[in-house]
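[step 3/7] fold_predict: job queued, chain A
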Amino acid sequence: MHYQQALVEEIRQAAARLLAEDVGPGDITAQLIPASQWAKASVISREDAVLCGVAWVDELFRRLDAKVSLHWLAADGDRLAAGQPFVELEGPARSLLTGERAALNVLQTLSATATRTRTYVDLLEGTGVRLLDTRKTLPNLRLAQKYAVSCGGGHNHRIGLYDAFLIKENHIAACGGIAAAVREARDIARDLPVEVEVETFEELDQALDAGADVIMLDNFSLAEMREAVTRSAGRATLEASGNVDDTTLRSIAETGVDCISSGALTKDIKAIDLSMRILETWSR
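[step 4/7] structure written:
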């Protein structure tokens, strides 16, 4: 519930920031168009994609001009074919053009995350392995990109530093070992999951003995992952991390790990190519 409430507030704030960034004190080019001129426009994707960002665009135009109406032909998570119109807009021509770039910016970015995620999820089909995102998100887009990952069929890892423990190398060193770190985590918050990142089989055994809920296998080879699955024998959820891309994903999944995390879903994305076109204009 906290995540959903935070996402709603983030959408409001993001729309305000997008308009402040692009429009500033006013769109001087839009003033070339008569205030009485209305228009109908549509937005298409120039490439195959997965749509994400509907609520952001709705909020953006609501703030910009309540007279603009939007008719969505697709929903978040839907696949778009190249050339497919996915939203129609109608309202004052000035407002459509003023909001165009801010709207496309958020759509192209969130749809890129959703699209990359869907590509990876498709590669995992039939394995039963869950695809997880990371905290390697674009600045100030954490909740938005986490939402986009879910639209693409992936799963959210922890949202931030507050909703799960992830005990890494430096935490282990500072705490005096894996067992001590896990024990301290249980004392702080017994209701939160505890995950330990390991780099060796010795650390894996220590994490298992300490009762970690999740163990992240950091840059293990495929053979080492298979051995880790055997050693774990279901005592902890195993997460593979490191060297994950579309050429390695399937083979990692086939080692028997439970989930795979990838920062590429959110940090190494290429914006989807979108275009808005005015279809007709008239005076009112």
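[step 5/7] annotate
The chain has nine helices and twelve strands.
The two ends are 44 Å apart (CA to CA).
exit 0
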